[in-house]
Amino acid sequence: xxxxxxxxxxxxEMATKSSNAKVREVFENLLVMEPHAQMELSKQTxxxxxxxxxxxx
Length: 57
Fold this sequence. Notes:
The protein has one domain. The longest helix has 36 residues, at 21-56. Helices cover 91% and strands 0% of the residues. The two termini are 30 Å apart. Helix 1 runs antiparallel to helix 2. It is built from two helices and no strands.
């Protein structure tokens, strides 16, 4: 999750520092999307763990 925190910080800095409105909008959208991507990855990881556990039985 360290990588995700760095990525979010990068998006935030780029959104703040950008003088171009379109570029700023892209990074703001990425900031909104990142938590959703993290949740999806967590769900997929749990599903894989569950499948792996079932296969051991």
